[in-house]
Amino acid sequence: MIEIKNIYKSFGNNNVLKDIALIFEKGRANLIIGESGSGKTTLLKILIGLHEVDKGKILYADREFNEMGIKEKRLLRQEIGVLFQGGALYDYLTVEENIMFPLTMFTNQEYNEKIERVNFCLSRVNLENQNKLYPAELSGGMTKRVAIARAIAMNPKYLFCDEPNSGLDPKTAILIDDLILEITKEFNMTTIINTHDMNSVMQIGENIAFIHNGEVWWEGTKDNLLYTNNLELEKFVFASKLFQKLKTT
Amino acid sequence: MLRRVISLPEKKKVFTQQLILEFEKVGINSLGIVIIISLFVGAVVSIQTSINLENPFLPSYLIGLATRDSLILEFSPTMLSLILAGKVGSNIASEIGTMRVTEQIDALEIMGINSASFLILPKIIAALFFFPLLVILSMSIGMIGGWIGALSTGITTSAFFTGLTYEFRPFYITYCLTKTVVFAFIITSVSAYYGYFTNGGALEVGRASTKAVVYSSILILVFNFILTNMLLA
Predict the structure, then answer these.
(1) What does the DSSP 8-state code read for residue B29?
(2) In this predicted structure, what is the pLDDT of residue B87?
(3) What does the longest C-alpha to C-alpha distance in chain A come to?
(4) How far apart are CA A122 and CA A151, in angstroms?
């Protein structure tokens, strides 16, 4: 579980996050939704330690992130898997080497053990026998799946996904969403997904936080979402004509 | 930034692999351009010198001497470094810049890896080690080019080789290699800096690459002046 308490963050005079307090539960897909520029990417970057908070606390299972020393933070980072928007696979490494990379850096495993883990991760994302391909040879969906495989290689406790299905066709996007949810349940991870894709929200949104103008505007599940009276959330959720039509029917 | 770069590698085996990769990228991949440019510049220097020294009172071995000194003192360490700033420097800036804009550097940082050291230190070490070798090769090939050029203007082989060895000061080599090491550091560190702090997209990667070449070149020229004043004046 990750708990954030009263987080504030600003860049110059721009107050990006104001008094954010949320709980992300273990074994569930926790979604952060909001318009572009609402502050959700900043929040995700704060959670994974790429930005520092101005005020507030981040608790990783009662361990406060800001009070950790460098060594503790390094250890915690090995418990974190991140799926970046573009995949962020290392161009000069093959699929196999990309997934093996964290294992090589942080474990003393023999090659055979590592390759076994790589093959397991690849099978988990339905990409068996694609070991020797380079990132440039992969489609968008395959890139995301390899990135998921790399993110779970170290058997993380926490999985962060930034726009996991951006740039994907709706069918592949749903496959990726389902895969993330399956992995979350299977490994009992705390998964946090940053998205503004409503298909994604309705597919896997178990615990949703809507961020608007840097503040938490609403919290709930995908079922609550459809019957919300929150005006800003309604504008966001029912932005498309299709969703508006569905609501009226 | 430099303190982050110059820190102990997290995993020696991975660092060694990175270093070997950089030897190939920084050094071995530059062999072709170094050989071609040095050969032709050496030939042109000797032809131009021979045209300018068409005086019966001047000994013909001066052509070999002028070619040698031009190559050792200026062309091989400085001009070649400017060329390598264009080739290697732009490559480093665009490679690291692309890694920045595609979040590959973020991915390293999140894993708890010191990305600056992981990416930049092997490049600096590879350049510090390989650039002097490239410069020595450039001097040798340049002199062969000079010999070919001299032959084409009617200078004898023995006169040219007499000039190459005439009043040779070994300190020139020390001066040349000292400059090369400094220039290697400038090229890799400046280019890596611009790549590492790229912000934006493909356009910014291109800009970072251009800036890396321009500022490396300016610094090479400034340090060439300073080092020449310190070591030769």
Answers:
(1) G
(2) 94
(3) 60
(4) 11
Q: How is the beta sheet containing A80-83 ordered, strand by strand?
A: A80-83, A158-162, A190-195, A29-33, A207-212, A215-220
**pTM for the structure as a whole:** 0.85
* B143 closest CA partner among B161, B170, B126, B155: B161
- CB of B11 within 8 Å of any CB in chain A? yes
Q: Tell me, what's the pLDDT at B34? A: 94
Q: Are B124 and B4 in contact (CB under 8 A)?
A: no
* A115 in Cβ contact with A100 (< 8 Å): yes
CB within 8 Å of B171: residues ≥ 6 apart: none
Q: Which of A44-53, B9-18, B184-193 has the highest mean pLDDT?
A: B184-193
Helix axes B115-152, B157-165, angle to 10 degrees: 140
Compute the average pLDDT of residues B34-44: 95
What percentage of chain A reaches a pLDDT higher than 90? 24
Q: Between β-strands A190-195 and A55-60, what pairing exists: parallel, antiparallel or unpaired? A: unpaired
Residue of A228 and B64 predicted with greater confidence: B64
A84-108 pLDDT per residue, tens: 888 899 998 999 999 999 999 888 8
Interface of A with B in 82-121 (CB under 8 A): 82, 84-86, 88-92, 102, 104-106
Backbone angles phi, psi at A7, to 5 degrees: -85, 135
Separation of alpha carbons B215 and A235, rounded Å = 50
CB-CB contact of B153 with B50 (8 Å) = yes
What residues of chain A score a pLDDT lower than 50? none
First to last CA, chain A: 38
Task: Judge contact between A39 and A45, C-beta under 8 A.
Answer: no
Of B14, B98, B103, the CB nearest to A105: B14
Question: In this complex, is the C-beta atom of B102 within 8 Å of any C-beta atom belonging to chain A?
Answer: yes
B105 neighbors B211 (Cβ within 8 angstroms): no
Helices and strands of chain B, counted as H and E runs: 11, 0
- B140 lies within 8 A of chain A by CB: no
Q: In 3D, which of B150, B162, B176, B159 has the Cα closest to residue B44?
A: B150
Query: Do A146 and A87 meet the contact criterion of CB atoms below 8 Å apart?
Result: yes
Cα gap A193→A43, rounded to integer Å: 11
**Burial track B50-66 (b if 16+ CB lie within 10 A, e otherwise):** beeeeeeeeebbbbbbb
